[in-house]
Each structure stands twice: as C-alpha cells, then as structure tokens.
Amino acid sequence: MPAPRLVDRLPEVSTDELVAAMVPPPMFDAVSFDTYLPSPEEPSQAAALARCRAFAGRVAGDGRAKSWWSGLFGGGKRQEGTAGLYLDGGFGVGKTHLLASIWHAAPAPKSYGTFVELTHLVGALGFAEAVRRLSEHRLLAIDEFELDDPGDTMLVTRLLSELTAAGVFVAATSNTLPDKLGEGRFAADSFLREIQALSARFDVARVDGPDYRHRGLPDAPDPLTDEELAARAEEAEGATLDSFDELCAHLARLHPSRYGRLVDDVPLVLVSGVRAAADQDVALRLVVLADRLYDRNIPVAVSGSPLSAMFNEEMLRGGYRKKYLRAISRLTALSRMANR
Hints:
The structure is a single chain. This protein is 44% helix and 13% strand. The protein is an alpha/beta fold. Helix 5 crosses helix 6 (127-135). The chain is globular.
C-alpha cells in the first residue's frame, strides 16, 4: 500500500477553531520559567528571564494594563513598560521558551500566536471582530514579530494600538539577524517608525547567544536516496511521502492558516526531489510549513538537495532573509531528529 500523502489532505479550520488554537505549540506545552536554563556565558539570558518573570507578575496582578489613552489624558502618570514586553535577539536563544512561559503564568483569557498566525486570524475574522475578541483577553503573546511586509506590520501595530488601549498586556519576540546583534534597537528602525508612540509602551529585553538548536552539533544529515526514503515510509507507520513539486503546488491551494492542521498527527514527513524553491511565493509558503512542523516537533527527511538548498543565494540576501534563515535552522533540527 502506498504511503499516505500530505497532498491528499484538505483540512478545514473554522474561525472559532482559529481563536481556540491561539495557544503555544505542542513543543512548548510544558515549559516554564523554571525550565529555562540561562547560559552562564550570556548574562543577557538571565536578565531577560528576570524581566519576563516580573512582567508575568504584572499580568497576573490585579487590574489590566493601563490604557495608553488614560495615561495621556486621564491625569495619571503612565508607568513605562506596563503594557508590553519585547524580547529581541537572534535565532535559537530561547525567546519562544520565555514567551510561552509568560503565557503559561498568565491568567485566562489569553491568546498566543505567531505574527503570521495573528495576521491570518485578522484576515479570517475581520479587523473589528478580531479587536472585539482579543480585547477580552488579559494577554496577547506574539512570537516572531516580522518587519518585512509593511502592510502586515501596519495591520498588527494598529491592532496592538487598539488592544493596549483596551488594557490588554502584550508580549512579543522577534529575531535579529546575526550581523545586527548588539545594536540595542527595538527590532528595526522601520518598526520604530511604524508603531510610533506605541513603541513607548514596550520594555525591551535583549536575549543574546548562539542558536541552541545547533550548539555543538554536527551539520544536517545528507539527503537520502529515493529508495531509502521509500523504505523509511514503509517502516514508519503514518509517515507521509510527497514529492517536493507536488507538495509546493498543494500548499499554494491552501490558506497558510490550514498548514498546521495539514500536518497534525503526522509522525514523520518525507519529501522526495527537494530543490530550490521556484520563486519567493513558494519559498514563503515553505517557511510557514517549516514553522508548523517545528511547532509540532515533526521529524523531516528528504531526498534530492539538502533542505538548506530550498532557498537560493538571492533569497538569502533579500528582504525575507530572516525568515529563510529561521526556516533553515528549524528544518535542520527536524532533519537530525529523523536521522536518529
């Protein structure tokens, strides 16, 4: 019997399910501040841990975040950092672990999602309905805040303005490119301009260090042959086996908000004939798929080119470089899992 294929799956996700799914991914179900182990060689990690604990304490305390507008016009003195905490650093330094720990420590109602998932939620619900639903929450945690799409950045910063005005606490993370570390900036200058006065509502915590996913580990395993891939599909019950080109075509037919449901309950993803993505649209869909696979800790094995070759040199020099580097980091870790 042929192995099941992802391309044969057509998952559906309702808007209510999208809201209910705003929780940390399975990989971070059980994390806490106590399970975050700061590197003694990176003092910023211990400092960020302390800042996150203090912020979680404010979220769990009485009352909601103080409104920006009440601070301006209500006569009260606005407390810096009351509404938001922003974790800024490179790949694989534990920012998501800390963000999920904040979420776990916060009282309900609360929501958690990546920047991309949040834009998908707003698109599905409509802006006004998204504001209405999320304004009822005590905390919104946003992982991987992205700066490379001005339209999405403006959409989310407008959303954050509405939510913080309603008293919602916001915690966020973003990746700083390796060659930009140490600049001490709030994400990027463009982000500062876009969020304008809202940026003053965030405390910023730097989290430095090497990518833990590759610390002291060998390079990603070499691709398998097609025959070896087929053998793995036979050995691993429930494993899916797709050709790279067919999978890319299938992703184009699905809204990215459905990619998580696409790979739910799959123990191993096998992809044959991997090669460089045909264009930027294909590459960005692969980034979202990589994130959903990583969220669920699903091993990946391939034939053809190495996983890192999915993004060509021009892509890695372009405006979406940060996304592609994150995807390579995550896919490399997942491919090691498949090679155990």
